[in-house]
Amino acid sequence: MNVAKRTFDAVIVGAGGAGLRAALQLSEAGLKTAVLTKVFPTRSHTVAAQGGVAASLGNTTEDNWHWHMYDTVKGSDWLGDQDAIEFMVKKANEVVIELEHYGMPFDRTDNGKIYQRPFGGHSMNYGQAPVMRSCAAADRTGHAMLHALYQRNVRANTQFFVEWNALDLIRNSEGDVLGVTAIEMETGEVSIFHAKATIFATGGAGRIFYSSTNAFINTGDGLGMAARAGIPLEDMEFWQFHPTGVAGAGVLITEGVRGEGGILRNDSGERFMERYAPNLKDLASRDVVSRSMVTEINEGRGCGPDKDHVLLDITHLSPETIMKRLPGIREISIQFAGVDPIKAPIPVVPTCHYQMGGIPTNYKGQVVVPKDGNPNVPVQGFYAAGECACASVHGANRLGTNSLLDLLVFGKSAGETVVEDFQSGNLTLKPLPDDAADMSLARIARLENQKNGTDVHEVRLAMQRTMQKHAGVFRFNELLTEGVTRILEVAEQSLHTEIGDKSKVWNTARTEALELDNLIEVAKATMISAEARKESRGAHVRDDAPDTAENPNGRDDKNWLKHTLWYRDGNRLDYKPVNLKPLSDDVEPIALAKRTY
Amino acid sequence: MSKRTVHFKIYRYDPDKDEKPYMQDISVELEASDKKLLDAMVRLKTKDDTLSFRRSCREGVCGSDAMNINGKNGLACLTDVDSLQQPITLRPLPGLPVIRDLIVDMTQFFKQYHSIKPYLVNNDPPPERERLQSPDDREELNGLYECILCACCSTSCPSFWWNPDKFVGPAGLLAAYRFLADTRDQDTNARLDNLEDPYRLFRCHSIMNCVDVCPKGLNPTRAIGKIKDMMVRRAV
Hints:
The structure holds 2 protein chains of 2 kinds.
Chain A: E1 4-13, H1 17-28, E2 33-37, E3 53-54, H2 65-75, H3 82-102, E4 116-124, E5 129-135, H4 141-155, E6 159-162, E7 164-171, E8 177-184, E9 190-200, H5 221-228, E10 233-234, E11 239-246, H6 256-259, E12 263-265, H7 273-276, H8 286-298, E13 310-313, H9 319-325, H10 327-337, E14 346-355, E15 359-360, E16 366-371, E17 374-384, E18 389-390, H11 402-423, H12 438-449, E19 454-455, H13 456-470, H14 477-494, E20 497-498, H15 508-532, H16 557-560, E21 562-567, E22 572-577
Parallel strand pairs in A: 1-2, 1-9, 2-6, 9-17, 15-18, 19-20
Antiparallel strand pairs in A: 3-5, 4-5, 7-8, 8-9, 10-21, 11-14, 12-13, 13-14, 16-17, 21-22
Chain B: E1 4-12, E2 22-30, H1 37-47, E3 66-69, E4 72-75, E5 88-91, E6 98-100, E7 103-104, H2 107-115, H3 135-139, H4 158-162, H5 169-180, H6 188-195, H7 209-213, H8 220-235
Parallel strand pairs in B: 1-5
Antiparallel strand pairs in B: 1-2, 3-4, 3-5, 6-7
């Protein structure tokens, strides 16, 4: 098959927050850049973020980056790298102010500054009381942010390839990254995007779980591509279950609801978080709140006829506050729960939301892999940012509003690094190997010719049910062991998917089959990494690692204070140290301690 | 809601194999959990994977799954399937070229959006901190910035059907007013100049289909009226 080649200085895959923020750096620096995106940019999943973006602006309550850093390290259960975390929290004010200058319609305080609300796990004075750190545009912060970033890219004349699906990463024999292959939805044609730099900003893979707040498009495409090209995936056992997905529908209800005063209640109306987190209560960290909710449900104090959810109550807030600060939540609640939250509480249940792990990067956005004894050697020409990357700032558990911050800071940082590398002449266009498109063409050809194969929908469902049952909010040794066997069986089935649609034009059946290839890599990485980590930490809590005097909360720093690296080849696991040392001398390392809220 | 069968009549066209479009009669048994039209369509797609449509967030914020549902534009993910009269007739958004099935070519729609310079223009050197804006001034942007670019409005507008290349259309004009109404924007005159011709703004005849179909409850007609007011005020 004849494959068209297109050449750019840089190719960015993904046009959500991270991709658009990176694109701005490149476009404004004059690099010839292609942004590939499988949906029109403003349809990327950043659009669904609700509650806010963290920055210690201190517009309403006193705040500073030291407190933000402490909260983030503690929230990560000390698995986050303190150099990257320091970098992120110090850059927060700058990147949020930039967005305001781009025109993002933040809500305002009475004196005209950016409005900030409290959020889970964010505190003043090292855990003492909630702080107002989440910069918000009503409960549509992601929408306001994504549109502002897209609009700024229109101004910067960024070149988009809309409705192009990236297929595979191209590497040469030295392991350098030379671009990607991609298929155009409208024509079904495969092209090579040959570039000096490749930035992945492909988002998460929340669709590996049956119940997820994530969009249909969140299929871990960048992770699948990286894994197939021999890049390891880091800390994939850590998945965030958001406390408040609409029961049954999975649609997200922002933590900002609790930031504005919302309360979680069990069947007797009790504010049960007071028992689990006496200090921050409903605004404890997400992993803590989700586990508390599941414990309430498991112990028979759930609500509804099946006692399978709890209630999120804002009926005590004034209708004016709800209409002004949480209008989108009211719409979602009416649409998907059939409840007007002004009048009655919303039924909610913990729902898969965010992938803490991803493609290993440093704080500059360079993808790093172990080589010759050094665990963090940059891969030439390869960068990643946002949910697909693992910098690692979220460690074992992300704080709400740190995801939008992550994608701004590291989208910009990856962009800046590419521009620097480009201008210093470190980036060159290396020759493409002859087989650059072979893997992608073979995958397409297999789908074209598969007979008596498996059904994409059935295999995906089997994967999602397996992940839900075997790697959920609470994890069990036996279920994890069984889960590894089961997910490898499902992965085997995914090799033989068959589609009925053979059209070249907008073949969504083929897209879903190709996406499943990516999802299944993420599912394997998750299950295998989770089975192997024999401790409880952050969002990964297992029955055989309980709270003891020696290992508080089940966390075993002696043996498990380390990042997991999963390699697709042979499902091999490797580990690398956590960076407990901050980037500068401005701050002391945040010392290991037991996490309580 | 329990299991039930729903009947569809769906516009189908695959340029790779069909000489011309046709309406397909098809039924599907829904699970109790299938509540929205999009749930039903996803269920239907497990039976016939050739049915093509866009979808992503499934909660009405990404704007992907706009289509013509029983004669009226809307989002499949925000439409209760049981509220619809059967057979549920699905067609692509009217007035735009069809690529395949329910997927339309939105080039013209976005071209118009881009034509209004959809970004903040402020030529003062940026301050170190945020530009200040009072809560009341910020309030002016409510009902404007929430647009999801689904194109339900513009593709329900007869003026846009007739002059998609010349009339900006309700979505683009809503965006134009979003920047005109922003106290931080300094490009008012150029923005009004850009709309001052017989077509770009003035082809709106207040038919108000846009208001009727907007899945986010926005009111482009009101925004267009305000732009016209600004034009008049500027002229006197």
